[in-house]
Write a structure and sequence with these properties.
The chain has four helices and two strands; from the N terminus they run αααββα. It has about 80 residues and is mainly α.
Length: about 80
Amino acid sequence: MPSDSLTVEEVLYHAEMLDRNLETFDLTAPRTVADLGGRDGLARVSEMTCIGPIPRLPQDVWEAMSAEYEGTRANGSLNRGV
């Protein structure tokens, strides 16, 4: 019977994936993440999925995150591929 245990390397890989996912939200909408209590607060409202933690947020908070991200794109600070 195969073991369901993870190796240390696998645990570190998954921990890094979780951290990168939360960091991406923090980089794209830092004000909204700060309003949620920072990365720890974001982690508390997140649900684990097959692609990592995804925040379970009400529509108005998602809209705030989206508007913050789009505001960053609109001022040219991110490459839009243009």
